[in-house]
Recover the amino acids of this structure.
């Protein structure tokens, strides 16, 4: 069974302060390009994050990958009957947690380490019966478990017959590299490449890949960072790379 936790309000003060400071950031950076966050509707320049330009919404804190995932999921979920659907969100992003929790009648957030979730779960051994959920979201999670194939199979197992899984991973190479031991810096066990989606195709009837250049560019879903080590198929422009959201379907 999943271990249930009381969800503390950690981070609420930080999120409130960030939202209040966003207009000031916009005022202080009039020459930076302006974008629109699809999650919180902030309009203005985005913050840089390390070597990534225009990465972070100064209002809600959503990163490129979170805005892209939101932009991909939003139209897919329009046909869902919220009160009847069950959602599992693993390693939940605060911005998507708030959105999904407010939209669906049954929402479970889970993580192996964090305490600000509903349940402590290991994605390799999900403590839920078969066919429990209509939607599973696990963004940038599969690179961490030792047996990522088992994790993908577990996500498929807990989905209902017409279920959807959103399983983005960081694309680091042309071909996936499985590490002999956990990386001491990044803590990953797998460095996904462009062939990584084949592992999802082994478990799901359909896997659809949604790219940054397929959504509204005003949401800034691209990664603005050096592309010298980026697989050529992911280079959108010099120093601008694409990201990809795989949407996995259990139904043919």
């Amino acid at each position: 069974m999943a271990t249930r936790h009381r969800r503390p309000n950690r981070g609420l003060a930080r999120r409130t302060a960030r939202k209040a400071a966003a207009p000031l950031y916009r005022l202080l950076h009039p020459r930076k390009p302006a974008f629109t966050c699809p999650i919180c509707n902030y309009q203005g320049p985005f913050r840089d994050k390390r070597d990534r330009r225009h990465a972070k919404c100064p209002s809600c804190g959503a990163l490129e990958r979170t805005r892209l995932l939101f932009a991909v999921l939003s139209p897919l979920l329009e046909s869902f009957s919220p009160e009847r659907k069950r959602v599992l969100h693993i390693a939940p992003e605060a911005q998507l947690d708030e959105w999904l929790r407010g939209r669906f009648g049954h929402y479970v957030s889970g993580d192996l380490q964090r305490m600000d979730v509903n349940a402590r779960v290991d994605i390799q051994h999900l403590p839920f019966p078969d066919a429990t959920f209509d939607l599973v979201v696990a963004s940038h999670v599969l690179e961490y478990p030792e047996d990522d194939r088992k994790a993908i199979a577990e996500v498929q197992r807990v989905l209902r017959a017409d279920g959807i899984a959103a399983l983005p991973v960081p694309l680091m190479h042309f071909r996936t590299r499985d590490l002999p031991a956990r990386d001491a810096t990044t803590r990953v066990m797998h460095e996904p490449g462009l062939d990584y989606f084949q592992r999802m195709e082994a478990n799901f009837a359909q896997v659809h890949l949604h790219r940054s250049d397929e959504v509204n560019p005003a949401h800034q879903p691209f990664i603005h960072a050096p592309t010298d080590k980026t697989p050529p198929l992911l280079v959108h422009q010099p120093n601008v790379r694409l990201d990809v959201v795989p949407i996995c379907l259990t139904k043919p």
User: Anything to note?
Assistant: The chain has one domain: 9-249. Residues 60 and 229 are 30 Å apart (CA to CA). Residues 9-249 form a domain with the Rossmann fold fold (CATH 3.40.50.150).
